[in-house]
Amino acid sequence: MLSSPTSNVLDLPEIDTLYTGRPVVIDFMTEQELTETYNMIQEAAKHGEGYGIDEFNSEKEFREEIRGSDCFVIKCAESGTILAGVIVAVSKFYRGHGSIADPFVIVKRTERKQGLGEFAMRTSIDFAKRLGYMGMYVDTFSNNTAIIKIIEKIGGFVQVGCLPVGGKLQNGNTVGSVIFYTNLSDVNNNVVNET
Ligand SMILES: CC(C)(COP(=O)(O)OP(=O)(O)OC[C@H]1O[C@@H](n2cnc3c(N)ncnc32)[C@H](O)[C@@H]1OP(=O)(O)O)[C@@H](O)C(=O)NCCC(=O)NCCS
């Protein structure tokens, strides 16, 4: 199992139910499931969905990028097959030590539009909180209607910025990014804009 030093605060596997009534299992990710997650991310990138075409040039590079992150899978309770990957990484937008989370969420293409994306995003927020993160930045491509819809539906996020060039799509065009932030701690961390 892939886990960080903080993962022991989570007692997994957990069993839950999607709004469709489908039972799912949330567990720590295995090495094999990390490879499957990488392949799902690469496939999404090829379809211009959520990840840049040149974001990860190899699985090795991807693994280096998420080293030290907490990696989880959402699996079908009946078959045990992976439905979605959830990685709680440390955000690069905070210039300190591991206080702000950056979630990677990916749903298997054949399993989309059944509420798994929202479930996976809610899981990343819940787990980031339980892992002690103070807040979360979500950096999403501006054309990613589904994840933006999910963030707005979950609530509590504030759009704090946008980047004119966020990544490259499969057709060679660049796409902008939208950055959202949510506070995860019980302490009121006011976001102050000072110039
Ligand atoms: C984004 C993603 C996680 C959504 O997964 P999903 O399982 O389809 O999401 P849900 O079923 O929970 O759908 C959430 C909402 O988005 C809508 N939605 C889903 N896919 C959509 C699409 N392609 N275009 C527009 N809306 C879409 C759903 O209809 C639903 O809206 P509703 O609540 O009004 O019914 C999935 O498309 C994915 O893995 N994409 C590639 C990776 C990615 O973009 N990750 C996020 C990077 S920041």
From TrEMBL:
Residues 24-185 form the N-acetyltransferase domain. PROSITE patterns: GNAT. GO terms for molecular function: acyltransferase activity, transferring groups other than amino-acyl groups. InterPro entries: Acyl_CoA_acyltransferase (IPR016181), GNAT_dom (IPR000182). It comes from the Eukaryota. This is N-acetyltransferase domain-containing protein. The lineage of its organism: Eukaryota, Metazoa, Spiralia, Lophotrochozoa, Mollusca.
